[in-house]
Amino acid sequence: MSRRLAQESPEPRPADSAPARRAVVAIGANLGDRADTVARAIAELDRLPLTRVARSADPIETVALTLDGPDAAAPAYLNTVALVDTRLAPSVLLGYLHAIEERHGRAPRSADQARWQDRTLDLDLIAHGDVVCETPALVLPHPRAHERDFVLRPWLAVDPDAVLPGRGRVDALLAALPGSTP
Q1: Start and end of every 7,8-dihydro-6-hydroxymethylpterin-pyrophosphokinase domain (predicted)?
Q2: What is the count of structural domains for the chain?
Q3: I need a surface site. Which of 16, 99, 126, 132 has the fewest CB within 10 A?
């Protein structure tokens, strides 16, 4: 006869009965019809299983970042943030984000892929509730989100009380960026 731990439920809970968590997805595009791509990506997020888009910010246009810093000669990005309520595990949600990117023409990610290339669509999982994790495939919260005006500004626009786990309030992070105006 096996013994159950007190906190272990007698039967596994179906995924759809798990509590939803608020996840933050950064969306960017600098190739093709950027506005249409961003709008379609948000609609696709809203159609994911066990997920709904709670809010998304108006897109902002930003200068492309390269390894050497901002590059005004590169195609400009259209960036926004979507707040989604999801019952999907972070790794599962990330897999769906990569599939959406691929449907919009982004080549599958590889370990040696340049981080700074132009993109038809870029979806980054910034935060997933208060989850903190670091694996080869996923780091949460996103390790550079606190440095990125194009993530913090739209996030703050849709959630004035937003907090980036482990980093603090988004309004304070944005105010601390050089040359940033909230």
Answers
A1: 24-160
A2: 1
A3: 16
